[in-house]
Task: structure prediction
Amino acid sequence: MKRIPAVILLAWTILSVDPVHAATSDDAVKVISQRSVEYDGRSGSGQGKHIVFVTGDDEYRSEEGMPMLAKILASRHGFRCTVLFAINPDDGTIAPDYPHNIPGVEKLTEADLMVLFTRFRELPDEQMQAIVDFSNSGKPMIGLRTATHAFDYSEDSESRFSKYGWKSKDPVGGFGQLIFGETWVNHHGEHGVESTRGVINEQYATDPILRGCDDIWGPSDVYGISHLGSDAKVLVWGQVLSGMNPLTAVVTGEKNQPMMPVAWTREYVGDTGKPARVFCTTMGAATDLESAGLRRLLVNSCYWALGMKDRITGRANVDFVEAYEPSDFGFGIYKKGVKPSHHRLQAKPKGG
Result:
C-alpha cells in the first residue's frame, strides 16, 4: 500500500466512522468507531482517569497485547482505556505493516496518560502533531519495546516532523531518545534464540512500581542500550537466557556483564516547560505479556505515571479478562482482516 495524501486520509477518517455500538451494562465497554476500541472503567482506583494506547508496530503484535492490557486496566482497576491502531485506509482493518495511518489520535487531547507502542511510523502531519502536543503537555507517557524507535521519516525527510525519526541528529535519536531516553541500538540478545529474564535492581527493590513483580520473563530478546543518561532510574535489568523458555540457563560472559536496562523511569520536560513522568521498557511483545510479572510491572507503572503510587498495594490483579492466545512476533504474520471492533469485550469479566 502506498502512502496517501493527508486530505484524502482525513476525508476517509470522517466518512468511515461506524455508529457507536452501545455497550451493555455488564460489558461496560463500547466500540466508539471503526478506528479504535474503548473500554469503560469498572470499579477500581482508576475511575476518572483515561489512558490512550497508541499502537502500530509490524513485528511484536502490539495490536494484540495492548487491547488485552487495556481490558485488565479497565475491568480490574477502573481506568477508562482507548486503544488506537494502524489502520488500512482501504478497508478499515488493522494493518500493522502500514506505517502512515493511526486515526483517532485526537483522543489524546482528553487523555491523562499515553501508552506508546509503535515502530518506524511515518504519520501524516495532523496525526503526528497530536502525539507531539501530548509529549509537550506535561502529562505522563509510557513506552514499550519499539517506542525507542517509534518513528522513521525515511520516505519524507522534508517533513517538519522528520526530526522525530530515530536517525535524527537534532534531537539526537529522535522521539525515542528525546522522550524515553534511548533510540534503536541493536539486538543485544540473539533475536529469536535468547530470551529475557527481568532482574530487579536491588538498589530500587522497594519502589512501588516493582511491587509484586517477582517473576518477569519474555521470549523477546534484550535490546542494546547505549544512550540512557544518568537521569534515568533503572528498575529492571535484562538477563540474557540461552533459550526460549524461562528455565534455560543464563548466558555466560560479556552479554550479562553488565546486564542491559530493560525498564526505567525518567522525567521529560517539553517545549512548554512542564515536567512529565516517563516509564519505558524494552520488553512488551504480545508473547512477553503472558508473564504476570511483566503485566503487573506495566499496571503498576500506570498508577505511578498518573501520580497514584500510593494506590499500588499488595499484588495488583493482572488476571486476564478474557482468553489470551497471542501470536508470535515476526514480520508479515499478523492476523489479517481484524477490525478494532473485534477487540471489544465479549462477556462480563470474571473475578472483576
Notes: Residues 29-187+263-329 form a domain with the Rossmann fold fold (CATH 3.40.50). The longest helix spans residues 62-77.
